[in-house]
Automatic annotation (TrEMBL):
Catalytic activity: 6-phospho-D-gluconate + NADP(+) = D-ribulose 5-phosphate + CO2 + NADPH
Residue stretches making up the 6-phosphogluconate dehydrogenase C-terminal domain: 201-493
Lineage: Bacteria, Pseudomonadati, Pseudomonadota, Gammaproteobacteria, Alteromonadales
Gene transcribed to yield this protein: gndA
Binding site for substrate: 108, 133-135, 208-209, 213, 282, 309, 469, 475
PROSITE patterns: 6PGD
Signal peptide location: none
Name of the protein in its database record: 6-phosphogluconate dehydrogenase, decarboxylating
Highest taxon in the source lineage: Bacteria
Organism (species): Thalassotalea algicola
Amino acid sequence: VLCDIGFIGLGVMGKNLVLNLADNGYNIAAFDLNHEKVTDTIEQDRLENKTDSPRVYGCFSYTELLSQLKAPHLIVLSVPAGEPVDQVCESLIGAGIQPDDIIIDTGNSLWVDTVEREKRYKSQFLLFSSAVSGGEVGARFGPALMPSGTPYAWTRIKPIWEAISAKVDPATGKPIERTEPGEVIEYGDPCAAYIGPAGAGHYVKMVHNGIEYADMQIICEAYQVLREGLGMSCDEIADTFEKWNQGPLDSYLMEISVEVLRHKLDDETPLVDVILDKAGQKGTGLWTAVSSLEVGCPAPTISQAVYARSISSFKSARVTASELLEGPDSKEYTEEEKQTFITRLHDAIYCAKICAYAQGFQLMKLAAKEHNWELDFSSIAKIWRAGCIIRAVFLQSITEAFNRDENLENLLLDEFFAKQLNLHQSNWRQAIADITLMGIPAGALTSALSYYDSMRSGVLPANLLQGQRDFFGAHTFERTDKATGKKYHVEWSSKGRPMVSM
Ligand code: 6PG
């Protein structure tokens, strides 16, 4: 038999996507440079296959892979971003890939690389991209997919992508669970929607990851405050997070944090206590922060989350400084004070989370404008409701905000989110004040509050800043009491000299 789909790269994500595709009735020709991974995937499929016929066929060269596929060929790549993508593309050209064949890059490629690749390979094959979110389990039982590239390629990919993606119950906005091999969900809203032309999908996934960094950091800051500030045990913190997970903070990241905190070693030591506090990163959060600076979109909470990972990597300097630099004296809290603080912290997390998403969505909006992408933000929020790492109840509210106003400039201006922030900002402020007095770092929670206060300031000190710029560099300024667009300059050094309009 000729297979429906070729699959290259059988790492954790690749193998699970192959099994997911197979569950949904597709035959796969699978290849990896590491032949053991090919045999391992076939073996896994043999164990999980509930049908009578094989679903995954192992290939041991690119030529063999192409020869096993129905034409025009559809090939999915799950290889690390960067060089490996080009190596596979070149190898497939060498093996005889055709101009109407499609290669789908599912990795976390840098979006500009995708734009460049699409152009470079245009005459040899169609490069389509579709970032995948959801980790190992998502890949196996339903990820969120962010496809982008030529609409023609999407018409061929769409039924497959909608089949394998996570699904949301349209009535509740909640994910439909799929956890068993062989199980197929044929109803619900698929978490796979066409994003736009080449690069748009990878950009959106990049911002998803930036938000993911912020979401994770916010939870981690809450953990540190509860642990060090209130002296709570990991189990007590897990109990608190579990409670929070019943309300507006309900999210996958909160859920897995509970599990991480509850995990114990044989001697009952919480595992988290022995995990080295140096965070890794593969680049997508950093790219989001860089892009926010380039686009001119404030995303301080996302950037802070990247900085928090960087500062964590300076372990030895931090240990030295911890002996050298002073903080506040520690304080004992009464049970009542603790409960009040926990309530305020909950609200701080909720508000900071709203700000992080506001930053991410505004960044996508500004980038879309710059690159002429017509992004549908309601649809993006919708496909993030299930399958992906940032899936959360909260995304239903974002979907609704963009349904109310598809041109919404910033989530903070939406009536629902404005109401939430107005209700909780006082507790948020109090929590930040308390955390600051405890001497515990909380860059994400704090930067979000500063973002919120900047956004709600009709007047910022940029007036003085413009004066400074004009002073040393004659950079000119506009005046609020004169016509817009008219520029003024002052000869600052000689008081009383007339103002020059330029
Ligand atoms: C996802 C994740 C996934 C990956 C991150 C990890 O959406 O499924 O974002 O893409 O786990 O890239 O990123 P860091 O290693 O940078 O934390």
